[in-house]
Amino acid sequence: MMEETLPAIHSAVPPLLLACSMHSPAPLLRLLSLLLTMGWFLGPLSAADPIDFAKDIRPILSENCFFCHGPDTETREAGLRLDTSAGADEVIEANASEESELFQRLISDDADMLMPPPSSNRQLNAQQIAQIKEWIDQGANWEQHWSFKPLIAPAIPTLPDTSLIRNPIDQFVQSQLAAQNIQPSPAAAQTTLVRRLFLDLTGLPPTPEQTAEFLADVSEDAYEQLVDRILESPAYGERMAWNWLEAARYADTNGYQGDNERTMWPWRDWVVQSFNNNLPYDQFTLWQLAGDLLPDATNEQILATGFARNHMINGEGGRIAAENRAEYVMDMSETMGTVWLGLTLNCCRCHDHKYDPLTNEEYYQFFAFFDQTPVTGAGGNAQTPPTLPVPSQKTANELEVLRAQLQTHNQRLKDLAKQTIDGGQIPFSFPKSTDAVIRNGFRQADRATAELAIKQDQQAVQAKITAKEKAIPKVMVMADMKEPRESFILERGLYNKPTVQVTAGFPKFLPAPEPTEKADRLTLAKWLIDPEHPLTARVAVNRFWLQIFGTGLVKTAEDFGVQGEIPPQLNLLNWLAADFRDSGWDVKRLIRQMVTSHTYRQSSRIASPEIYERDPENRLLARGSRYRLPSWMIRDQALAASGLLSSVSGGPSVNTYQPPGVWEEASFGKKKYVQDHGEKLYRRSLYVFWRRIVAPTMFFDSASRQSCTVNIQRTNTPLHALQTLNNTTYVEAARVLAEKVLAEKDLVETGIDPTSDSDAQKIDRVFQRVLARPATATEQQALQAGLDRSRTQFHRTPDAATELTAIGEAARDTSIPVVEHAAWTGLCLAVLNLDETLNRE
C-alpha cells in the first residue's frame, strides 16, 4: 500500500519533499503530516514573491541555529558560523538547495545528521524549511541585520488619497495599510484628542478651561497651536523625565541591605529642565556620558554626568571593594549599551554574544571607557566621590552674601595690621559685635580688642557658611583618574580573574571613529552621536514613539539585535530616525511630528472584527492606540482633577501617604518612614521619594530602578483597584473633587447659577475635570442612581459619612453638609476608577 501511494503523493507535494529518500519515507510522511496539519498549500512559493532574508530567514537561523553556530566561540560547534555570510557559504550552494548541506541537514531522517539536533529541543516547521529552500534557490542573498545598516532616509511614499495625510508619518503608515487593503480609522473626537494629548505630553488631564479654549478655537490650525502650547508647559519636562529616570535607574537610595539615602535629585531636576529647554539629544547624550571631559566644562555639564553614577552602591559587610567597583563599571557600560545602542551587552560579560556580533573582548573595551573612574567601591557612602555640590539658587545667593561679608572682615584685619599705633590706642571703626560698644558706632580701642572683635564676627560668618555648605546636596558625578587604570578581560566576569589586557575601543561590526591618541568617554559619546552611527537615532526615536503610542515601532525597545523584533513599519522608523538626526536632534520637533499626524489622532475604536483578527496588536497602526495609564500618571491625574496637585517642582524628594511599617519591615526596622505634610503630600509623582529595596507602594507596574529599564510593563489585575479605590490619595482626591463641584465658588467660576444647579450639571463638571467631556445620558442615569443610594445609606449611617470625608489631610469645607459631601465623594471616586479614566483612549 505504501509503495502504491508514494508516486501520487510526490506529484502533489512541494519540491522540498522530493528531496527525501524514496527508500526511507519516514521524513516524507512526517513533513506531509505537518503540512496538512498547518493547512499550508502544498505548492512551491511563487517566483514573484522573493524571500526577504532579514525578515524571513535570519529570525529562523537566529532562533534555531545561532546558539551553536553563532558569534560565541565557546558554544560554536564544528567551527561553523551561520551568523555571517562567509560562514554560511561553507554549507550553502547558491541556487541549488539540493546540493546545500544546510538544507539536507534540515530534512535528514538520520538523527545524527538532523539539524537542529533532537536534543536541542528546537525544530523547524515545514514552512520555515520551505522558506530556507526557496531562499537558497533564489540565490541565498545575505543581508546585514537591519539595525546595523547605515541609516539612510527612505523615499516618502506617495498615495492617491491624501485626505487623511497630515505629515510623512501618515504617508508611510497608510501606504502599508493600502498594501493590506485596510483603511485607516477616522480621527477621534475632539474631547478625546485633547485629553490624549495632555496626558501624553504632560502626564496631566486638561483643565475644563483648557478644554473649552481648544473646542472654541475654530481656526484650521487649532490643534497644532494646542500642541505648541503644551510643549512649552513646564509639565512637559516632568512627563518626559519619568521614562528617562527609569532608563537611568534613578532612585533616592543606594539599594542592597543598607539602602542608605543619596542626594541625586539635582540631576533629576536637570533632566526635567533639559527636556523643557529642548536640549538637543546629541548634547543631552554628550553631557551625560562625558560632560566632565568637555573643554572648560560647566557645572551643568558636570552635573549631567550623574547619569552614570545612578547605579546601586553596595555597602554590605564582607563585600570586597574591588568586586563592587567592577560591578559598578559593568552597570555603567551595560546601561550605555541599552540606552543608546539598544543591545544586550550584559550577555558578553562572560563570553561572546550568542546572537549578535559582539565579542567578550569588545564588551571589556566598552568597560575600559568607564574603568577610569576613581571610585574604589569601598563602603556604602551615598555621596561617594567624585561629587559636585549643587546649591539651590536661594542658597547660592545667601552664600554669596556671606562670603562677601567674610571678605570684608578679612580686609578689616589687613587694614588693622597697617594702622599706626599711637600710645597704644588706635582709631578704628567696626560694626556692633559682642565686644563692641554701640538661609555701626565708633570708639577708641586698642589693637588687641579691635582684632578680637573682628575675628569674632569673622568666625560667626564662617560658621554660617560652613553650615550652609554642609547642607548642600552633593551629586555623584563622573571623573577620570589622572593616571590611567589598566583594564582586562575578566574571566566569567569575575573581578579577581583578569586575563588579557584591553584598551577602550569599539565593536568591529559598527562604524569606528577616527583613531585618537587617547580614547575616553568623550570619544565614546562622540561616536554614539556621529551621523554615521546606525543605532543611536533609531533607538532614541523608537523609545519616544513607545512613550507616545504605547508600543515601540520596534516592540523590543531594549533589543535591536538579531533576537529583537523586525519592525513592521521599518521604513517609517528609518525615515523618522534619519530626519531626527539631520534636523539637529530636536526632541520637541520629533514629538510634534508624532502627535500632529493622523496616525496619532485616529480613533482607538476597532473598525471591524476582521481587522482586529488580522492585526490584534495594532502593529500596522490602523487605529489609535489605547492602553492602561502608568500608575504614576493615574495618581497625578487624580490630584490634578481634584485641584490638589502642587505646583512646586524640583527639590528634595517627598514622602507622601504610605501604609505604616512598609520601610520598617523591609529594612529590619533600620529605616523609619516619616510622612511629609502640607503641599508636599500633593507633589507630582516624579518627586516622590524612591527607596530601592521597597518602591513607593502606590506605583504598580513601575521599573524597580535597580537596573536600566526602557520597556514599559503593563498589567491589569484586581490588585490595582486596591490602590485606586482605597489609597488615601485617591479617596482624598475624590473628596476634594466633590467639594469643587459642590462649592458655590466653583459654580460662579463656571458661570452656573447656584440656585439652579442640578445633580446632572454637577456630574458633568466631574466628567469635565476627569475626562474632558460631559457625561452621556446612560452615564448620568447610572451615576444618579448610585448617588441616590449613597445619600440614603449615609443618612442612615452619618458616622460613616463623617469618617469618609475626614480621610486625608486637606481641610474639609464644613459648609457642605457631611452626608451630601460623602455621597458625592463616592461618586467622584467611582469616576476616578472608570475604565476610561484609567486608560489612555
Helix count equals 36
Unreliable parts: 1-48, 420-427, 432-438
Shape: globular
Strand order of the largest sheet: 1-4
- The percent range for helix content is 40-55%
Largest sheet: 2 strands, antiparallel
**Class from secondary-structure proportions:** mainly alpha
Based on DSSP secondary structure assignment, what is the total number of beta strands? 8
Beta fraction: under 5%
**Rg, alpha carbons:** 33 Å
Distance between the termini: 62 Å
**Overall mean confidence score, pLDDT:** 90
Give the key terms.
globular, 3% strand, 841 residues, two-stranded antiparallel sheet, two-stranded antiparallel ribbon, disordered N terminus, mainly alpha, single chain, 47% helix
Folded structure, characterized:
This is Planctomycete cytochrome C. Pfam families: PSCyt1, PSCyt2, PSD1. InterPro entries: Cyt_c-like_dom_sf, Cyt_c_Planctomycete-type, DUF1549, DUF1553. It comes from Roseimaritima multifibrata. Keywords: Coiled coil. The structure is a single chain. This protein is mainly alpha-helical. Among the domains are: 2-143, no CATH class; 174-235 and 588-626, no CATH class; 391-472; 725-840, no CATH class. Helix content is 47%, strand content 3%. The protein has 36 helices and eight strands. The strands form four sheets. It has a two-stranded antiparallel ribbon. A two-stranded antiparallel ribbon has the order 2-3. A hairpin with a 7-residue loop joins strand 5 and strand 6. Helix 13 (234-247) packs across helix 14 (265-276), helix 27 (631-642) runs parallel beside helix 30 and helix 34 (798-804) packs across helix 35. The longest helix is centred in the middle third of the chain and has 26 residues, at 393-418. It is globular and about 100 Å long. It starts with a helix and ends with a strand. Residues 1-48, 420-427 and 432-438 have low confidence and may be disordered.
